[in-house]
Design a protein that fits this description.
It is a single chain. This protein has 355 residues and is mainly β. The protein has a single domain (12-351), classed as 7 Propeller (Methylamine Dehydrogenase, Chain H). Helices cover 2% and strands 44% of the residues. The strands form seven sheets. Strands 2, 3, 4, 23, 27, 28, 29 and 30 form an eight-stranded mixed beta sheet that branches. Strands 1-26-25-24-22 form a five-stranded mixed beta sheet, with no helix packed on it. Strand 16 and strand 17 form a beta hairpin. The longest helix has 8 residues, at 7-14. The chain is globular and about 50 Å long. The model is unreliable at 1-45 (pLDDT under 50).
């Protein structure tokens, strides 16, 4: 069995997040473009080059706004132009200043401080999962074996499926999701890799619901969150980095993972994709668990949902024309990437700078 990282693209377009909540939603709005205003960036340090305005190779999509100097970075995108059954991953190479086609079934994650690039290649389930780290500061790369448990398969010991590398906001740890055997979207645990030592450990967390995106970091990098329960009746659980449950929010939807992720940079609020087919985003108060707002998201059956925090007052989210910066009333403040709805296209935005 090959690692099914490409599965995330298909799942994100069909995932259902419809559990009930007693919290009242105060605002409902649909994301529509009303103006193009530049959002002030929070990152101020000298950083690697960002992708320029213009068309994206292997795709009909294009970048339509300057990306340098922002609190998020476009690290890669998935495109299925002309190849719906075999989507391609294009990753930004800041040294060569261009997007490069990545090996099939691979995944690339850039740390918020922009120093580290982690690459995971799809592999066989009878081979130990690996992760390669490139240190942009030194130019050196190192590949490590991940401490993933095995189970008895029909053809001998097999490694649990391990995908979705996700950086902590402080750039000091990498997280990967480990699935239980079979095709049910349930967790077996997570792998945490410390940086720069690259020492990895497995943390068992059983039965979390990880249909798409999986575990996400808290804003202070001290814990992770994931859905718990089942589609139609789930909550969001907070775990410490030893796997112990610390809190449960009885809210609907899956934790978002784009930009700064589930939690706003200050940690005061968190966001979930909260309706069937992920056509809406719900923002919640972290302290109370009460609903703050619900806004509509741009939807296409051939796109994956983009959703996460841009800064404390804005989201990075899917729009009717692609992806952009959206305020908490659903107003599209600025479009960053435009894409044809008929084409399978999924951009990946990561945090940039410090929360």
């Amino acid at each position: 069995m090959f690692v099914r990282i490409g599965l995330a693209l298909a799942l994100s377009a069909t995932a259902t997040s419809t559990s009930t909540s007693t919290a009242k939603v105060h605002t409902t709005a649909t994301a529509t473009v009303t103006s193009v205003a530049r959002i002030p960036a929070t990152a101020t340090v000298q950083a690697p080059a960002q992708p320029p305005v213009g068309g994206l190779p292997g795709s009909s999509a294009k970048i339509v706004a300057k990306l340098a100097g922002r609190p998020v970075q476009l690290t890669s995108y998935m495109s299925s132009k002309g190849k719906p059954s075999r989507p391609e991953l294009w990753a930004w190479d800041s040294t060569k200043r261009k997007f490069a086609l990545s090996p099939f079934n691979s995944s690339v994650a850039v740390s918020p401080d922009e120093r580290w690039v982690a690459t995971q290649l799809g592999g066989r389930s009878d081979k130990v999962p690996q992760l390669t780290f490139l240190d942009r500061k030194t130019g050196k790369s190192q590949t490590i074996d991940l401490p993933v448990p095995t189970y008895a398969g029909d053809n001998g010991d097999q490694y649990h499926q391990t995908i979705w590398p996700t950086w902590s906001p402080d750039s000091r740890q990498m997280l990967l999701n480990v699935f239980e055997p079979g095709f049910e979207p349930r967790s077996w645990g997570i792998v945490l890799v410390d940086v720069p030592t690259l020492k990895a450990r497995f943390v068992p967390i059983r039965k979390a619901l990880i249909t798409v995106g999986g575990f996400q970091w808290t804003h202070d990098s001290t814990g992770v969150v994931a859905r718990w329960g089942k589609n139609g009746a789930s909550s969001v659980r907070l775990y410490d980095l030893k796997g112990a449950v610390r809190r449960t929010w009885n809210v609907r939807g899956r934790p978002a993972g784009e930009g700064w992720g589930t939690f706003s940079p200050s940690g005061r609020r968190f966001v979930t994709a909260c309706t069937s087919l992920e056509k809406a985003a719900c923002v919640w108060d972290t302290a109370t668990g009460k609903a703050v707002t619900q806004i509509g998201l741009g939807f296409s059956a051939s796109w994956g949902t983009v959703l996460g925090w841009y800064d404390d007052k804005h989201l990075i989210a899917s729009t009717d024309t692609g992806a952009g910066v959206v305020d908490l009333k659903g107003k599209v403040v600025e479009t960053l990437v435009k894409a044809d709805k008929s084409q399978g296209f999924r951009p990946y935005f990561a945090a940039r700078g410090r929360p």
